[in-house]
Amino acid sequence: MTITIGFEGSANKLGIGVVKDGIVLSNCRSTYITPPGQGFLPRETACHHQQHILDLLEEALDVAKIKGTDVDAVCYTKGPGIAAPLISVAVVARTVAQLWNKPIIGVIAYNEKRYRIFGETIDIAVGNCLDRFARVLKLSNNPSPGYNIEQLAKRYFHVFTAV
């Protein structure tokens, strides 16, 4: 049986997951929420990851009901992504691997001189549009720009239909 722990922090979402023989034991996340009307910046995003990664690591181990000594390998997102958050997460992953005396695997999707995407939703372009539109309207990113746009649209739709 193989247990791996993976660290992901290539953008504004920080995640740590534990997988045992292909079964996800934990998948814990923390998202950097920017002030309304702003996108996320590398330095602030990296600070968020630095502030939350150790608590998230503890949570991931607790949810998976394992200890660090049970882990067989440590994985982390090597790229592509935003440099500052990637580096912050990589430092912690490398430190954990050294403390636990485990092999470390940098995961990067690069093949035939191109970065490859392992997986994403088909609506990423729509999501990017919603993010930008929410910034223009100075809507909060909490819980998500799309949700906040929807709530605003419902409120205005109700006003227009009541007239």
UniProtKB/TrEMBL annotation:
One of its GO terms (cellular component) is EKC/KEOPS complex. It holds the Pfam family TsaD. Gene3D superfamilies: 3.30.420.40. Residues 30-107 form the Gcp-like domain. It catalyses: L-threonylcarbamoyladenylate + adenosine(37) in tRNA = N(6)-L-threonylcarbamoyladenosine(37) in tRNA + AMP + H(+). Its EC number is 2.3.1.234. It comes from the Eukaryota. GO terms for molecular function: metal ion binding; tRNA N(6)-L-threonylcarbamoyladenine synthase activity. It is an enzyme of class 2 (transferase). Keywords: Acyltransferase, Cytoplasm, Iron, Metal-binding, Transferase, tRNA processing. Signal peptide: none annotated. One of its GO terms (biological process) is tRNA processing. This is N(6)-L-threonylcarbamoyladenine synthase. It comes from Caerostris extrusa (Bark spider).
